[in-house]
Amino acid sequence: MKFKCCEYLLNEIVFSLSAVTPCCCSPNPAYEMKFLSNFNGKLFDVNKYIEQRNIYISQFKDNIIPKSCIGCNKVEEKDWNEEPKIKRIIITNSTKCSCNCIYCSLVNIGHQTKIELNTRKAYDIKPVLYDLYKKNLIEENCIITVGGGECAELPQGELDYIIYIASILKCRLEILSSGMFYSKTIENALTTQNCILKISTDSGNKKTFEKIKQVKTFDRTWKNLKNYIQKSKRNKNSQVVIKYIILPGINDNINEAKSFIKKCRSIGCRKIEIAIEYLYFEKIKNNSIPKSIKETLSILLSSNFDISFEGQVQEYVRNNIG
Ligand code: SF4
Ligand code: SF4
């Protein structure tokens, strides 16, 4: 039966700070879809998760689009396989991070101070993952994304366990890191697993980097990146991606984009990802493209790197630059 729905609702599960949700990409700031509320890491009755998932699916079938999904470009009409199989797991239960990016959504949207975020105790994801695995709910070859907080600052053994589960299920791992701490566990994932490591530097220029990150770790981060890239070359299934998040008035200019490309080249980087700071992107995405954004994008696109885009930026680039 054909109906409007989205693959995230059907096949993704997000472990966020205190809830289990279908996605983390709603266009609506007041996102209220939850498989489980007040989640604290306790093992849950899988039937409850499936029950709530089915309620949302029935709403879609009845053409009652949940408020959180209105306007979301992930909604499509097709014959969906409704079997409850998880194809993507996003783990963002921890908020501890020694970096201090000015665009960090944990601070900007979560409205918590950095001290609160760094001292907040996260629930243990290990038993939950094992339970889903044991109940055969995770599909082989699924994607596991570890966000944060900073995964190099997760409690001892947590990242190793996630990597272990990923290896027995032959999953693709996506590790998001600030890059300020070199992690042997991440190195191990890069050399032995199907793994993508993403680190945003947003600049190849020390002063600009420090303005964005609000920490003095420019040299250390690029040195760590160089090491990760060298290690990843031993494994054809792994890749290091350096992100450039365009911020208005800070790195949205030709010189910044050029210095980023130069720095990436100097450490042997092959792949970059382009993003636009999410609050700014919301303001500009339906209007004509600002000159500074167009120029910055054009320089980044003219590099001979393998380029990907975050979220709707790909569509935005296609519509505005071609
Ligand atoms: S339609 Fe969009 S907002 Fe709704 S669950 Fe899917 S991805 Fe999330
Ligand atoms: S690295 Fe991520 S979690 Fe840490 S401050 Fe930056 S955006 Fe926030």
Tally of structural domains: 2
Number of strands: 11
Q: In CATH's first tier, which class of the largest domain applies?
A: Alpha Beta
Number of helices: 13
N- and C-termini, Cα separation: 36 Å
Strand content range: 15-25%
- Net shape: globular
In sequence order, what are the helices and strands, one letter per element? Answer: EHEEHEEHHHEHEHEHHEHEHHEH
Q: Let me know the largest β-sheet.
A: 9 strands, mixed
- Superfamily at the CATH H level of the largest domain? Aldolase class I
Unreliable stretches covering 5 or more consecutive residues: none
Name the hetero compounds present: iron/sulfur cluster
User: What's the CATH topology name of the largest domain?
Assistant: TIM Barrel
Mean pLDDT: 93
Query: Strand order across the biggest sheet?
Result: 3-2-5-6-7-8-9-10-11
SS class: alpha/beta
In percent, how helical is the residue content? 25-40%
Instruction: Please tell me the CATH architecture of the largest domain by its name.
Output: Alpha-Beta Barrel
* Whole-angstrom Rg: 20 Å
